[in-house]
Amino acid sequence: MKNILVIGVDGKLGSGLMKQLKAGANGTTRRVNLQANEIYLDLVNPDSIKALKKNLNYDVAILVAAISEPDYCFLNQKISWVTNVESIVEILKILKEYKIKPVFISTEMVFDGNKGFYSESDKTDPILIYGKQKLEIEKIIRQNFSDFIIVRLSKIYSALNNDNSILNNFYYDIINSKVAYYAKDQYFSPTLQDDFELAVLGLIKKNLCGVFHVSSSHRISRWEFYQLFAEQIGNYGKVRPCMLKDIKFIEQRPPDLSLNGKKLSRAIGLTFTTPEAGIKKWITNNSIL
After folding, report:
1. How far is C-alpha 84 from the geometric centre of its chain's CA atoms?
2. Deepest in the core among 104, 119, 163, 247, taking most CB within 10 A?
3. Calpha distance 196→207 (Å, rounded)
C-alpha cells in the first residue's frame, strides 16, 4: 500500500480508514493529545494548514475532514464555507506542490434528487448548501489535477452501536418508544461503512483515477429501510411512515439521492453488502437478539 495521509481522523469515516490502514498511514486531528501516527491540523487556522508542509512525505492524501451536517452548513454558511471549501483549497494547493494524489470524499448531495440512482456521468445540480460546497471542491480538483480520485458517498451506516448512524437511531427510537416519522418517498442507497473503507483503499491500491460512487446500489426509501430493521428485531415501536413534505427541514431535502455503485464495484471487484445483510451484521455485532 502507498504512503497515505488521512486528513480528518476525528470522525467515524476517517477513524475507520485509519483502523484499516493500521500502521501504514498518518492522520490529521484537532486533538492536542496526539498519537504516534497523528498530526495536528486546525482547518480554520491558515498557519496550521501551512505547517502541513513539514510532514508531507506521502503518495496519497485522503481528504475526509468536513462539516457534513446539512442544516449546520445552511445555518452557518460562513464557517462551513471556510471549513469545507477555503481550507480544502489551500490543502489542495500544497498537495499539488508536493505531487501528492488527492482522494476527495464527496457526497450524493451534489445531485438535486429529482432523478435518483445517479451514475458518475449524470449532471450535478445540488440544492443543498453542503452539496454546493462539495461540488466546488470537485470542480477545483478536476481543473488542477490529472491524477485524482473523487468518491461520492451514499448514506453510510456502520455495524456498531452508539455511533449516531441510521440503524443506531432506528434502534433507540424503538426501545425508547419515540413517536417518530420516516418518509416513504425519500430514497437513498444505504451503504455499510466497512464497504466504504474497502472501496477507498481498493481504489488507491489499484491506482485508479476519476469519479466513483460508493453505493450498495440498492434504492430504498427511509421508511422501507426502517421496516427491514424493525422486522428483523421484531419491534416497530411507535415509528410511523409519512411523506417527505410533512417533515419540516431547515433546508428542504432532495427526494431521491440513490446512487449507482456498479462502476466502482466492477473496477475493484467489490460486492457491496445488501441492506438486509447490513442490518443482520448490526444485530449480531450488538447482540440485540
Report:
1. 13
2. 104
3. 17
Tell me the three cell numbers of residue 229: 430493521
- What the block records as the C-alpha cell of 139 is 470542480
Measured between alpha carbons, how far is residue 163 from residues 48, 109, 159, 237, 239 in Å? Answer: 29, 22, 9, 21, 20
Intra-chain end-to-end CA distance of the chain, in Å: 39
DSSP code string of 17-28: HHHHHGGGEEEE
Burial class (CB in 10 A: 0-12, 13-18, 19+), 286: middle
- Gap between the Cα atoms of 20 and 144, Å rounded: 29
pLDDT, tens digit, for every residue of 48-95?
999 999 878 899 999 999 999 999 999 999 999 999 999 999 999 999
The predicted model gives 153-175 an average pLDDT of 91
pTM over 0.90, yes/no: yes
Using a 10 angstrom Cβ sphere, with 0-12 exposed, 13-18 middle and 19 or more buried, the burial of residue 64 is: buried
Overall size of the chain counted in residues? 289
Residue type, 42: D
Residue carrying the nine cell digits 495536528: 40
Structural domains in the chain, sorted by start: 4-158+190-218+258-273 (3.40.50.720)
Q: How many CB atoms lie within 10 A of CB 92?
A: 21
